[in-house]
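User: Batch of two.

Assistant: Item 1 of 2:
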Amino acid sequence: MGVHLVAGRARHLARDWRDATLAVASGIAVAYVFVQLLPQVAEHEDALAAAAGRAPGRNAYVVTLVGVLVYLGVDWASRRTRAGGADGGHAVYVFSMVSYAVFNLLLGYVIGNRSGTDVGSLALFTVAMGVYFYVNDHALALRHSENLYLVGRWVLSAAILGGWLAGLVVEVHAALVGLMVAFLGGGVIVRVIRNEAVGIENLTAFVAGAVGYALLILVTT
């Protein structure tokens, strides 16, 4: 949650330092998606298959695909609205904040619901999501005015806090948790590739972050 409150300040850093930190953070997020998140999506396959009355197979990945398509649609609609000029600028801000807030709400619930997760896996998850928000919020801060972003970061912080509190006190069926994780996986994939892996200014730092975090995941899990 705290990342949302400070991430926009990255644009005030010296350019070389900013590009390096953003590239490392992007590499970490990409590594987590492909080395840790997708295998976790597969772990929910049995619960999803049972709820759907189907044999275990690719049900979780179908939900992940839905997440990819939904957030690609959000990105496409944002671009179309942004092309509308000044009036479209405010509309795309509201649209972006709503989609990001829903994402954060679901993510917060999943975090709060991971009470049985070992400390190592939870730490890897926390670091990866922290740097993901750092890069994503930097992109938001560049796209929107200072005043709009200052309001939006509090909305995003409140959403993830509300989801986390709900995850602590509200227990839902394992299949629904599986749906959330798989859907969020699709959203993270789109945003990682769209906002983070594209336009990298420091390839060395990006590769170092990705390889280093992938090795850390493989060694500690």
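Item 2 of 2:
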Amino acid sequence: MRAAVIGAGSWGTAFARLLVRAGHGVVLWARRPPFAEELGRIRENREYLPGVPLPPELRITSDLGEALAGVEVAFFAVPSFALRGVAARAVPHMPPGIPIVHLIKGLERGRGRRISEILGELYPGHPLFVLSGPCHAEEVARDFLTSGEAVLVLGVRSLLLTFGGIRCGSRWSSGGPDGRLPPPAGSRIPPPPERSGRPCPSCL
């Protein structure tokens, strides 16, 4: 699968690394060209995720057109206050109808709109999903088992299976029944009790 991760902070970097290690082709987009160049050159995000090497297969760019060209899914990992501007700039480059997933907590500054509402406004016709849960970028990047599992909230069962496949090869297992509304902005939701703390069996 070809994926773009938009946002090279700690969570975007950790998530892009996770996808690459699971065998997917990933482009990580960084807003600042000098920062993107540094990430590509030293293969480490010293500003947001120091001490974690970036896999050589991970492509890094500051060009949204390059990041989104030919991808099959786009993940937004920019801060909530910057989302609308970045997402609006990405509209001309977004492949038609691909799933869009956001990894962002919070509300739009000054308007109080949820992240899913902003993306729905800018990307009509794209299936929208949210990845949320009690996990930390530094733990995910270092392959630690988190205290809880990230919960993938999906409206289409086939995509639940697809994104479950994304996570195999990591030390996460997927969860989240169809049709459930996203958790409240900024919340941390507990993992399913029967699955808490267990890695995917195929990853052991």
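The beta strands are 2-6, 25-29, 44-45, 49-53, 59-61, 73-76, 100-102, 128-132, 151-153.
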